[in-house]
Amino acid sequence: MKYLEVVCRCVVGLTFAVSAGSKVAGPRAFGEFVGMLRTTRLIGNGVLRPAAVMIVLAEMAVAVALAIGAPIGYLIAGLLLTIFIGAIAVLVRRETAVRCRCFGPARARLGYLDLARNGVLWVIAGAGLLAWLLDGHAPVASAGQVLAAVTGVIVAGLLIYLNDLVEVFVT
Predict the structure, then answer these.
(1) Higher per-residue confidence, 82 vs 137
(2) Which residue(s) pair with 104 in the sheet?
(3) Domain ranges of the chain
(4) For residues 42 and 27, what is the distance between their CA atoms, to the nearest angstrom?
């Protein structure tokens, strides 16, 4: 179970770190993120910037918490992912054309693939929390921990670049 927790921690933590980092990579990146939120029409104009800051801070909190092994990171991730899934579902239902700034500039608009990715991340966050609760303090072998971390990094990369991978293999 401990190795599963390490994989989950790396997947969720790295995914949220990249997501937060892409939104604060410069003033233009953050401005584009705020603009994307405006396009969704899910948040009032008066609170767009504070909401954007809160989203980025929450994503950073997930990454930092999981980097230091604090399981609260899984809970924050689960909450954020629930909100993201709900928001994307509303946008898909309304057929609102929004290009997500989830991991930097995007060519594709939000859709079912983003719902699937966030659903998978939600399950991984839940599995990580469960693994931590069941076996969180068990000792692990260094080689096994490294292998679990590398696996987590690979899975995170696949999830982060999922839209690009689908575009390459489908078109």
Answers:
(1) 82
(2) 102
(3) 2-170
(4) 23
DSSP string covering 96-138, please? ---B--BTBS-SSBS-HHHHHHHHHHHHHHHHHHHHHHHHTT-
Judged by phi (left if over 0) then psi (alpha if -120 to 50, else beta), residue 43 lies in beta
Locus of tokens 């995170």: 156
What's the CA gap between 126 and 123, in Å, rounded? 5
pTM exceeds 0.70, yes or no = yes
Q: Which residue's structure tokens are 């509303």? A: 90
Residues 114-167: tens digit of each pLDDT: 999 999 999 999 999 999 999 867 677 788 889 999 999 999 999 998 888 888
Nearest to 163 by CA among 126, 125, 118: 118
How far is C-alpha 87 from the geometric centre of its chain's CA atoms?
Answer: 14
